[in-house]
Amino acid sequence: MLLSAVCDFSFLCYLSFWCEVLEEVNITQKYLQTVGLTLEKCIVKLQGLKAFLADQCSEIAEKAICYATTKCKEMDISMERRGRVKLRKTMPGMKAKDAGLTLPEEMKRAMFECLDRFHHELEIRSQAIEKILSMFAVIQPNSLVGATEKDIHNYTPKLTEIFDEFSNEDIFREIERLQRHLEAAKLSVEEAKKWTALQFLEFIVKWDYCESMPNLSLCLRFFLTLCVSIASCERSFSK
Ligand SMILES: *[C@@H]1O[C@H](CO)[C@@H](O)[C@H](O)[C@H]1NC(C)=O
Ligand SMILES: *[C@@H]1O[C@H](CO)[C@@H](O)[C@H](O)[C@H]1NC(C)=O
């Protein structure tokens, strides 16, 4: 009884569908929890997931329909639309008036809509992360150790516009100071470029430079706090 109650065509479809999609989501969310992951890498990974959803859309849907069709035949489940089934299989956002469509067609459309929504949600999140990244461009590793004076003067206003406790001039002076300290501590530029924001903050704290770099250390703290809240948001989102 239970089997026939849960096993209808649309259920089997979604079973295969979510299995495919969630496998990729699982990999992505595992990766996003990597310790010390930079925001750039988060964005790239999310882009990868978006590309997967966009490229594999038809394939995933076809596969799900194939799977459900085969299983229905095997288990002798009717693929005809049943009165009650229609109600149950309606997903949020799916229009109920798909009158002229066969059940597989209707399912395909529903799956496309699911993927579309998911893609859209990911897009919103990636954009939010990109915005933070651009706001904090000046304290990204490449900028802290490698940016030219001109770059720094370009990046800083994005930050100071939002956080008016920082001034462009102070940030610039502190970055120069940090670079001198890194050099004095015999750290190669190449090595420091691979650091995360956390490692820069740790360096500053370890060498007791907080006092001579108050703006920079506060700024790194702001950034790291934001990163943590994004990470926990992504985590709860992907569950
Ligand atoms: C998610 O991925 C991990 C390995 O990265 C694996 O052990 C786990 O079984 C996967 N979970 C699902 C539901 O696929
Ligand atoms: C930024 O640096 C200036 C000069 O060192 C200092 O007076 C100011 O308090 C710092 N601002 C913050 C928010 O730490």
Automatic annotation (TrEMBL):
Residues 1-23 form the signal peptide. The keyword Signal applies. It comes from the Eukaryota. InterPro entries: HATC_C_dom. One of its GO terms (molecular function) is protein dimerization activity. Pfam families: Dimer_Tnp_hAT. Residues 196-239 form the HAT C-terminal dimerisation domain. Keywords: Signal. This is Zinc finger MYM-type 1.
